[in-house]
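Exercise 4. Each item below gives a protein and its sequence. For each, produce the structure-token representation.

Item: Holliday junction branch migration complex subunit RuvA (Vagococcus allomyrinae).
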Amino acid sequence: MYEYIRGKITHISPYYIVVEAAGIGYQVAVANPFRHSVDFGKEVLIYVYQAVREDSLTLYGFAGLEEKQLFIKLISVSGIGPKSALAIMAGDDHGGLVNAVESEDFKYLTKFPGVGKKTAQQMILDLKGKLGDLAMSELAVKAMANESQSQNTVLEEALEALVALGYSEREIKRISKELESLEAETTDGYLRHGLKLLMKK
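Answer:
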């Protein structure tokens, strides 16, 4: 089992990033690929979780051990797979997630894609009292604007990333006009703002 990969980020898509280490490009699924835009072409250390299934072998990546531990606890819940766990973590509101579980806030939990009332109940049953040991520090990530990209390009990438996280076209269409009204955002900025809007609706 891999613990982490140290290498350069050579590709970023709405679904994953590619980290090149020792001449090999590793495709790594992450909660918010565009959060790593600031590190494109730089050497990074990505903690990974390897999921092996009959028809696939997938690496899931995290900026720190706390994120990885949260992911492992989330996928231990019946009804939550790796994709759903990444979608839950994409907003980086780990404190809000812990509070929702501890206070049994079903309304908050069911706003995540793929999480219905039954899964939310299971999350509370399985995780309540078990997340306090994680150091849920909010990750301070400074996104740098890419001047070569137009607003339309970065907005389209952000909307595609929301689709990759499991949100429906109807949900995304509902917030797209508000996102379009924002000034000179990066892809990461649009994505973060979009996630906040979807959690409020």
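Check: Helices lie at 65-75, 82-89, 94-102, 106-109, 117-127, 151-164, 169-180, 187-200.
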